[in-house]
Amino acid sequence: MLIQFFRNHKAIHIFILILISLVLSVGGFFHSSTVSTFYLEPALGNLLFKGQSFTLSVETNVVLTALITAGQGLFLNRLVTSMNLFSRPNFLTALLYIVISSSLLPFLFLSPALICNFITIWMLGRLISMYQLAQVKQLMFDLGILTAIGSLIYFPFLSMILLLWIALFIFRPFDWREWVTPLIGCLSIYFLIFVAYVWYDRTDDFFLIFSQISKPKINDFSIDIQDYWVLFPILLGIVLFIVTLKEQFFKSVVQIRKSFLLLFYMLLLFLISSIFTSRLNISHVILCTPVIAIYLSYYFTHAKNPWVYETLLSIMIAAGLFFTIS
Questions:
Q1: Residue 297: pLDDT above 90?
Q2: Contact 220/281 with Cβ under 8 angstroms?
Q3: CB burial class (10 A; 0-12, 13-18, 19+) of residue 313?
Q4: Any stretches that span the bilayer, and where are they (predicted)?
Q5: Residues 174-192: pLDDT tens digits?
Q6: C-alpha–C-alpha distance, residues 44 and 205, integer Å
Q7: Helix H or strand E encompassing 44
Q8: 76: number of CA atoms within 13 Å, CB side?
């Protein structure tokens, strides 16, 4: 019944979504020993806090993460509605984002990747709206700066610079100045960071920031066998999305098709970007949740058999709750 309920677009849905996010995060209270330490990336952490970590209480960590997740889901839903990616406005994107972002236990705790999703959603909206602009050099410069800022929070976010060039290839005719400006924006932030390291006479530490690209180290990227049961309904939903998209694809306007192509490359880049960090863990996958949430909400918006889509969502919620609590 949730799909039918959230297919409407009413203000009361906002409060219900926040409540759902808090309910789905309850599993975090049963696993206080699994709370990982929160680190800033070396670029900022070593400069400002000398590599120190931050630890929050379990209650604060879980509740704060749930509220951030709900906020990001509503932010993403607003983007999808304003870009008119679907046939009609609804709150399905926010619902699916919250459900997916609460499906695995590490997702219930604060992480740099989760914080970066705010920047991901913001940049996605700016990229999709690119086709409406006559000049995008200023936009590309701003997005290059945002990419650098995101990488200071979570270094694999640096892969988004490639997405900016892919977006230019998809939406714009070639102009070398538009391709150079995002790189200039990104490098300007790192130049300022370099100046700060030079000021403190720690130049060698600055170049250590990029050593993790050539020497990636995977630690704690394991998924319990039970977690595969959580991922199965999500993967099934993606399969149903592909089938639905195939039926609707050529009925959509060209810009909608290009937007879904951009989403695919974003998902691919976030999966590949795991080589850009020496602190890789399963929380990295949460970068993919905005794209997956849009994919699934597209299917749930166009699905016609209530027994199928309501059952699928119920299984996703039940599996996430059961395996995060157990």
A1: yes
A2: yes
A3: buried
A4: 12-40, 60-80, 92-125, 145-171, 183-200, 228-247, 259-276, 282-300, 307-325
A5: 888 999 999 999 999 999 9
A6: 11
A7: helix 42-48
A8: 30
